[in-house]
Design a protein that fits this description.
Layout (H helix, E strand, L loop, with lengths): L16 H4 L3 H9 L6 H11 L6 H13 L1 E4 L7 H12 L13 E4 L4 H8 L5 E5 L10 H13 L4 E5 L2 H5 L3 H15 L3 E5 L8 H13 L4 E3 L11 H18 L4 E3 L7 H15 L11 E3 L1 H15 L12
Parallel strand pairs: 1-2, 1-8, 2-3, 3-4, 4-5, 5-6, 6-7
Helix pairs in contact: 3-11, 4-12, 4-13, 5-6, 7-9, 10-11, 11-12
């Protein structure tokens, strides 16, 4: 994950954006001064891009690209070291009978499973990501959130997926949310930070845009839709709004930041819709795992089945891939 090395901490945010974070009033003025989202327009555009058809050669490329963008995830109370090792094995060789199948981008686990994942993936180039900050609700003190982050980083996590305080955001305590993201970013050290907005709880596209910019101002390397624990999770229109945010951020600052939709993306057809959106809304340079990820587990199974179908010319059936 290299593209976000140009993304400095929020203390180095270029002017005039730096003025936006001077105090609560400045931050509120900036966020509420962002252009409003045309709900009908963004939903129609998302629906239109979702109808695009692509040729076979492009579809094979899209499937391989999507596989390489997957954060293969297990975030259950019943997770065991054995399950994490099995997930790591699948991350390394998603389809053991097809060695040309790309590896996934990362394996995402709880902090107490990071050490197991790091050991299982050592030398592969696959990142270990860890949720932190009281995932998924985030209803705990900042001290505990920082400690949670430190546990994951000390165990070897290369990426941290944090949750914002949605209650504070919805009450308009923007500076509090900003400062907490900054603090978590500092605690990450060299690890990259993905900021989970939990868009299903933000209610409006305008709030999604404001939360996206807030996370970018605070130094988030990625903005992420969801924990996957709240419905609705990722949607194409919401992802459009977030892609617009990182594109506009790049235009203003020259810095590349990433987007990660997570939750509810289960089929190859859906994944391709998101890749079309990335290309059309943000731009071609975002079509790589350094700048776009899928937070998923079951999605990989369908991608592998469709990959076999495209290569063999017939449907292989679900028994040919492992089921998570």
């Amino acid at each position: 994950m290299t593209a976000t090395t140009s993304s400095p901490a929020a203390t180095a945010t270029p002017s005039p954006l730096a003025d936006a974070t001077r105090d609560e009033a400045s931050l509120r003025r900036f966020l509420h001064g962002l252009p409003g989202v045309d709900q009908v327009g963004v939903e129609q555009r998302a629906a239109g891009l979702g109808t695009r058809s692509i040729k076979k050669a492009a579809k094979l490329w899209a499937i391989d690209t999507a596989i390489s963008m997957v954060d293969l995830t297990t975030l259950e109370g019943a997770d065991t070291q054995g399950k994490v090792r099995a997930l790591a094995a699948k991350a390394k060789r998603p389809d053991p009978e097809r060695p040309d199948t790309p590896q996934v981008a990362a394996v995402c686990v709880y902090p107490d499973m990071v050490e197991t994942a790091v050991e299982a993936l050592r030398g592969t180039g696959i990142h270990v990501a860890s949720v932190a900050t009281g995932f998924p609700a985030g209803r705990t003190s900042r001290e505990i959130k920082l400690a949670d982050t430190k546990i994951a980083v000390d165990a070897g996590a290369a990426e941290i997926d944090m949750v914002i305080d949605r209650g504070a955001f919805l009450e308009g305590r923007y500076l509090e949310v900003f400062e907490e993201i900054q603090a978590i970013k500092a605690a990450c050290g060299s690890a990259h930070l993905k900021v989970i907005l939990e868009t299903g709880e933000l209610a409006t596209y305008d709030n999604v845009r404001r939360a996206s910019w807030l996370a970018l101002l605070a130094g988030g390397d990625f903005i992420k839709t969801s924990t996957g624990k709240v419905s609705p999770a990722a949607t194409l229109p919401v992802t459009h709004v977030m892609l617009q945010a990182v594109r506009d951020w790049f235009v203003q600052t020259g810095e590349l930041r990433g987007v990660k939709p997570a939750g509810g993306i289960r089929t190859t057809k859906d994944a391709i819709k998101y890749l079309v959106a990335v290309h059309e809304v943000a731009g071609e340079q975002w079509l790589n795992p350094d700048l776009f990820r899928f937070g998923a587990s079951s999605l990989l199974n369908d991608l592998l089945l469709q990959r076999r179908t495209q290569a063999d010319g017939h449907y292989s059936g679900p028994d040919y891939v492992t089921v998570d």
